[in-house]
Queue: 4 jobs
Job 1
Amino acid sequence: MLSVPKQLEILKRGTVTIHSEKELADKLARGKPLRIKLGVDPTSPDIHLGHAVGLRKLRQFQELGHHIVLIIGDFTALIGDPSGRSSTRPALMYDQVMANADTYTEQAFLVLDKSKTEVVFNGSWFKEMNFLDVIKLNSRVTLNQMMQREDFKNRFGQCHEIRLHEIQYPIMQGWDSVVVRADVEIGGSDQLFNILVGRDLQKEEGMEPQVCMTLPLLEGLDGVKKMSKSLGNYVGLTDEPKEMFGKLMSIADEMMAKYYLLVLGETMDAAMHPMEAKKQLAAKCVAVYHGEAAAKECRDDWDLRFSKRDLAHAELPEVTLPERKDVLGVVLHAFTTLESPISGGDARRLIQQGSIQLNGEKLNDPKAEPAWNAGDVLKLDPVSKRPIGRRGE
């Protein structure tokens, strides 16, 4: 293993909190592999780059010689993590959770070394508990503690309901740490409360408490809200290469440094031109999940479409001209045709800010009716999460 200072230098990179760094240093100083825990709830079938932030930190621990325990929350997923939620999550059926778990584990190994990863399901211990066991576990945590959570506190203050089963979630996550004897637990910055519950339960069991390591939440392609499939602002690990490349080319310039750090584990070269930096980010990300050849093909295709303006040789989707011939009507129709519908307000904003082009010329007036001709190229802003030129007919 590397020296403790060197390991700390690597592991601290990109973290929000480490509680505590001294405890982590002491654990590392023993020279033995630590048990590093990450729990994931398979509430959907796909993993996106936001999920991969934690997986990449696990991979760093893995490469430093530590033991990874990936907990698939088949039972916690039935509750749904209330962290950051202003309302109760919709309930999932167990069969749906287990179907999602199959793809979760498969996709997790796009980042993790499968041969060095222990995968466990928390249902394997929770399903063995009887009601008396549940009562005893609940007796270890007070309602006062639960109400210190910002999300519960806010919901209570705003007279929004808090279902009793939601209060079980931090307790269950904490008990996971006891069962797997975690030395370190990794989670998003919204997971700190849950991870601290794990520390408390470990102490009660006479165990050395785990170190809490939290990571930043990755904003989605909109640059505002946390990456989420339900919000449509995500980049999936199994997205097709060109789709992944195009989505990443749509992120705002001010988000690139964070994406470099959290998605690639690199520091962006501040001297690099923003467009080149974005192309490198997109290409490197595609290379991680699809290989170098796919990354090169995506970049070459992008340059052909947009940088070199050689659109005559690019394969562009075609759309027919709708009855409504004004710019706003055609733009809305084009987005809908490509199954990326947007609101009239968003379309109008894109037009007025100069993000829509016809044969290289900006269309700034939503009410204008230019002469639309077959073979024209309509370039849309990548609000659809995939920047594409379109031929009008």
Job 2
Amino acid sequence: MVKRRFWVSRIEEAWGRRPIVWLSGVRRSGKTSLALSLDDVEYLDCELPRVRAALRDPEGFWRSLPEERRVILDEVHRLEAPAELLKIAADHFPKLRVLATGSSTMGASRKFRDTLTGRKTELSLTPLCAEDLKDFGGEDMTRRLLRGGLPPFYLADTPRGGDFQEWIDSYWARDVQEHFRLERRDSFMRFLELLLARSGGMFEATAFAGLCQASRPTISNYLRAMEATHIAHVIRPFSTRRQSEIVAAPKVYGFDTGFVCHQRGWDRLRPDDHGVLWEHLVLNQLRAHGFSGQARYWRDKRGREVDFILPGLRGAPCAIECKWSSSAFKADGLRALRLLHPEGENIAGCRDVDRPHTAKIDGLAIRFVGLGSLAAGLADAGVAP
């Protein structure tokens, strides 16, 4: 079993703040393996009938445990009243520490209408981030881009298209069907395929409606369901309503590069393919460190663009450009952004940067960082998760 030290550290830090850690993630992202890798815990699989029976009396169950026990409730969404169980633990047994795991639909489930405000810390387990790759035997970025970041897919000897399709079928059956009132499977699945194939591009619902034989409102509902289950990540534009800026159209990214490659029919990567996939990997790194909820992109009506914008010191836009190779870096987008928004830090996230450094390009000071040093670079720029 691979110990994902970055996520173990995040769980331990979260337990230091609040008694309940709510760990969600897409199927096969490694939630159970991560939970089992924690030291000195009592593991309970909530899919087992005997475990569900033991938890029907929450107060009695919690009293039966040592006062400072660390408990894993795996697949907690399978319980009848998981929010009540966790609330009782937090309010009446404050020395207990509980890690509750479940699919990414936990937040969409009616069982979690009680949000446990002030009692829990939420973590979303991403596909493999830069820190994970070190634990999985090294930073083979091309393998990570092509096979994706779900551990069994990344570790497989050879990627198999059937595995991706099996996962997608399971997603429809177990995540979408259980929590959303969506009936037209073929239409939904066609939209998912197109979204992955066009991942990272500008999104306009009307463009998908005809291809999926669905109305524009239906396409918007599909996207909301995918966003709620962490299958799609919607990045909205940053602007101050200037006439030259894009102010409405979002960009949409699929959750994992392996699925993007599968839908594009890529079984090997050409040099030009790395750039768009690298952008996905940078977004995944932002998500792993808790930055993605604030992420925007910037684009003007002449097509000049900056990949991601985050709020920095005093709200000044911190700009992130993603480049597979630092030698190919051009500052056109950053220069256009800074003509309108001169304040803020500039960061270039590049595959081939081993040591962070600052360079001046076209009169702009730009901080070059690798994937593993991106979060530290953002912290230096005054960006907080």
Job 3
Amino acid sequence: MISSFVYLVDSEHGLDRKITMNQQKLKSESIEIGSDVWVGAHAVILKGVKVGHGAVIGAGSIVTRDVPPHCIIAGQPAVKIGERH
């Protein structure tokens, strides 16, 4: 289940101040979300993150790293706060 206002951000541009924004290359990595995952409102999942089956992501979390299966995470950046049984 994915709640409202969840952002899946699968790309970014560099922050090289020596060149203009239009000249910077886009970096992209897919996001993988397993089955039976719950994502709370206003959560942000960044590029390259893999969310394991049965994981729970708390509302307002910023997910910067992979989430193991059945793990409950929350915060900015998101950290493990428990496990789903």
Job 4
Amino acid sequence: MRIQVLSTVALFILCSPALAETTTLKQALEATYKNSPSIAQQREKLLELNEIVVQKLASLKPMVNATLKQNLDDVNGKFTNTATLTIKQLIYDGGKSLNLINSSKLTVLAERELLIQSEQNSLLKVITSYMDLRQAIATLELAKSNTSVLREQLRASQNRFEVGEVTRTDVSQTEARLASAISNVEARNAAVLSQIANYFLIVGQDPGALETPQKHPIIPSDVATAEAIALTDHPRIRAAKLYLQAADQDISATRKNTNPIISGSLTSSTGSAIKSSIGAKIEASIPIFSGGKLRSKQRSAVSARQAKKYALDTAISSTRYNLNAYYATWQAALAAIKASNAQIESARIAFEGVTEETKLGSRTTLDVLDAEQELLSARSNLISALRDEQVQAYKVLAEMGQLTASSLGLNVKLYDPTLDYNKIVIESPLGKARIKLLEKLQNR
């Protein structure tokens, strides 16, 4: 179909060397996955949260401090030096530290889901921009074609006016339509330039001549199946569930604020004025009164948990609404494509018939112009429907959690957040042994 392959007109419109190469939708998606600032930002946030896990894990590991002192002896005027090495280890805190560690780990998992959502949002923006630009270019070409048809009609009207077959009114009507068509071409040209700028902003490179995209991935034939997948796999829901679990861990941690904290320490001192000495001690501290601070933290954690529960409810309802809305719009676009094809065929036959009838004098010039406008409108409707079918289909896929580089089979190096996590959250052999021992004590 002619209007489906009109994107190369941008080469002739813009006369830009940057648009000399063709671009596929897959190439645009791959470029965005590699260069998107929003995806990179979310990855950096994950790295930050990985470090927080390390910081939480440190509370279960031994803390080693060294102190060096130099004092002046007023009696003999000499300096004395003292060196002290202290090793301190948490023994028991009722499991609070483990709760905080679990909370930080769950937060990392939640942010990984939000990274997937950021990836989906970025890829969907590319698809929308790609299809919007193709639509703008196709509409511009259609407007240019309409101008050519009207120029030919104007020439024919002038010839018929010269031999007295039509009046000056017929010529003026054609001239008015032509002037409107020329203005429309300029407006469509501006729209193309605007869409090119938007494409560059999103993808980070010139579009080139956009090729007709391949068929999008298969979508379930019924909305119920698509909705079930969405409610299970959409990253916004998965992230909300993980954040809710993290909030449960935070509540458990605050409820243990009143538990005793037991720690042990080993101190070794040596110096010029004292003999070397080694001391060991175990300390236990029990909060008795904090002015209401600890209870307030508990209530705050409970409220935060309830907010996370509402966030999960919102995520579920939003996903369900979006999925059904996008699915319905996608179905409407499929129907619109069929209707527009039928409309084009009927409008073409009507236009050709009115044109012939005009030559016989049974139709006026205005009838021809109106029939030509109907054909133009039908073709424009098809262009819009083709764009909508692609965009809405990918929106459905995004709500199903399947608009990712992996799902789309993009030729890129996929980012694996677990690799960075494993590099950053490194536990020493001593730290691992201490944590295992503490876990046994905490769970008694």
